[in-house]
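Practice problem: Ferredoxin
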Amino acid sequence: MRITVDRDRCEGHGVCETAAPDLFQIDDEGDLVFHLDGHDIPEEQWAAATNSVLTCPVAALKLEK
Ligand code: SF4
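Answer key — structure tokens:
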């Protein structure tokens, strides 16, 4: 499973951080930090990752299986 971020859409709401705090963080500037953008996500994070995709209010996260 992979997730990509549409940086043009992302508004830094941080809902994804709440859903998957081990994957997403909002930095001091209010920008999203996601080190696994486009890379394989560890299986133990799949449920949280899926939640983040489903709850992003602007649909900035895209799931690829
Ligand atoms: S929830 Fe969506 S808009 Fe908010 S920081 Fe995460 S990816 Fe960006």
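Discussion: The helical segments are 15-19, 46-55. Students who identified this feature from the tokens alone can consider the problem solved.
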